[in-house]
Design goal:
Helix content: 25-40%
Largest sheet: 10 strands, mixed
Radius of gyration: 27 Å
Bound molecules: nicotinamide-adenine-dinucleotide
Distance between the termini: 64 Å
Number of strands: 20
Strand content: 15-25%
Oligomer: single chain
Amino acid sequence: MNAPANPAAFLDTLKRPEAGATPVTVAFGDGIGPEIMQACLKILVAAGARLAFEPIDIGERVYLSGNTAGIAPEAWESLRRTKVFYKAPITTPQGGGFKSLNVTVRKTLGLYANVRPCTAYAPFIATKHPDMDVVIVRENEEDLYAGIEHRQTDEVVQCLKIISRPGCEKIVRYAFEYARAHGRKKVTCFTKDNIMKLTDGLFHKVFDEIGAEYPELEKEHWIVDIGAAKLADNPSQFDLIVMPNLYGDILSDVAAEIAGSVGLAGSANIGEHCAMFEAIHGSAPRRAGQDLANPSGLLLGGVQMLVHVGQADVAERVHNAWLKTIEDGVHTYDIFTEGVSTKKVGTQAFAAEVIARLGQRPTTLRAADYAARPTMRLPTWTRKPPAKKELVGIDVFVHAPGIAADALAATMKQGVFGPYELAMITNRGVKVWPGGLPETFCTDHWRCRYMAEPGKPLHHAMIAELLGRLAKAGVDFIKTEHLCTFDGEPGYSLGQGQ
Ligand code: NAD
């Protein structure tokens, strides 16, 4: 079975939603998307989900019709009204010019938290880590995914890593509240704040600040490289891990795969106003239309959705019937193991097996208990009052090929006219003037740092004047960054070797 020719007609085949059912926007997606979505909707409806589905069109067909965002303008109206999106995977067409639909939806709707439970189902599904039960909470909007990239010189391109205090506060608060509501005992934070002291440093600092409000939970921080190694080697030492976007993107796939298969994990994308639920895998085009694909990842995304809309009783019924099906050895091809599995089934037959077990609970695997858990109640986020900010310097970034640092310093000093001086030049972050080493390789991209005399803060007009003088001296400056203190704390890093 491939894409329903008419999603609305498929939805009409399901039991009609009762009055007062929660409206949910649903997208059938591409590749295996339509067939796994149909399987999941049949299960949810059979379990008594009080949901009214509204179909929208997203993905390959929309991209190829000339819409580079992959989502039709009218789809936003449904998403903004229902505020709940159940989404099958889509295919992003090859080639440039197509924007990631997932990133667009997450950021447009402010879905700041990505929650991916990664659980082993040993001995029924092969895994190297039978005790693994980790939830990855990934920041979903910021970091290098801000998508702000520039080519600055012939030799250098940059991608801005944006980390905000509100972004950190929201995701860290979410992680601790999730841990509390779901009976998790330990919250771990991964960052690389030994290198990125301001950006990852802020994430870690906010983790410590907010963590102090949860005395009943164990807290720890790992540098992401060794943390990732420990996660891959011994995941049962972790319970819930919160991390910035890029690390979370990579490590949630690693965690899902080592738990058993990326094909099994669901994913919730939660915002203050809206939420989106999906599988973590893609559209697996080579498996499409053959009734082979495993609907489990999307189904477990659906379970997260039911909890989110306040139908924990139905979520529990679906999850427990699914666990019992897995336990009974009824498996799709991707998790089928001779000697462990008892029956190999296709997508729709798997759905029928889950439906036949609604009301049953697993006997070996830990049963789901959503109905007994407290509802998550996130406090409203409030902005902190601004700090006292003083402009104490400026970094001028310069495109200058084939020049020695001393010669560049002589040129850059021509811009100085007030109570500040050229303090340092770096190349790719390492100090090359004053006192650089001839061994340091230099590109055509330089950062020239001017610092104000102590007690004499700069003002914007002085910076405009400095840049005017540098332009007259023929300097090809490509960008500037202001160096400020906030309540006396420097808001900039030192040069490496400074
Ligand atoms: P993929 O996850 O679609 O598939 C990788 C392989 O995993 C498949 O070949 C298949 O063998 C297996 N697999 C994945 N899901 C399965 C399932 N439910 N049942 C059985 N086997 C399954 O990754 P890919 O091949 O790199 O990407 C294919 C397309 O999906 C690309 O266009 C990509 O952009 C898109 N994608 C979409 C999403 C999303 O919509 N959230 C996420 C990732 C990738």
